[in-house]
Amino acid sequence: MTRHLFAFLLAALSFGVGAEGTEPPAQPYEMMSPAQPTQSGDKIEVVELFWYGCPHCYHFEPALQAWLKKKPDDVMFRRVPALFNETWVVHARAYYAAEALGVVDKLHQPLFDAIHQEGKRIMDEETIIKFAVSQGIPEKDFRDAYDSFAVDKKVRQAMMATRDYGITGVPAVIVNGKYRTSPSLAGGPDDVLKVIDTLVAKERAK
After folding, report:
1. For the chain, percent of residues with pLDDT exceeding 70
2. What's the helix, strand, coil split of the chain in %, to 5?
3. Rounded to two decimals, what is the model's pTM?
4. For FRET with 141, which of 4, 106, 192, 199 sits at 20 to 30 Å CA-CA?
5. Distance of alpha carbon 162 from its chain centroid, rounded?
């Protein structure tokens, strides 16, 4: 996809986007219409949409990591880097490059920490490649993955998922393609996980 076309499609998604707040509404989740396909087969799918530059995503991560350690076996979890702005593409490509190399653990939390604890500005290709190298990821491997067709395809899919899931901010969580929740809907990070468990149980009972 050309840079100009990619920028055009991203512009169509960029209305009204921001980090999710924490003011609880009456309903802790929203029904999605239409429901979206899942990639989990017979398992119940939980998808987190996030951005490394988002402070709410950073503060949600510890609670999410704790939940993942006790995630039920019939639940499949995956992350999708949200794409509302062309500047977010660098982070999305970095995540998928790390995923392709099997080194998400080396990049994911350290990148969050570098941005939000250390105040580093990591927003362009060369800076993020240097950061990956600083985490012990071989430069050539990371660069090749970052520029690969496979990662380009994943980024396009993430852009479409951002649109199709109907989110307006991050972090956001989609349960089994049917339910959309977030800290602002649920009332906070820990409350999101309670909502996820409730929705997973609801799907399991069907």
Report:
1. 87
2. 50, 15, 35
3. 0.89
4. 4
5. 9
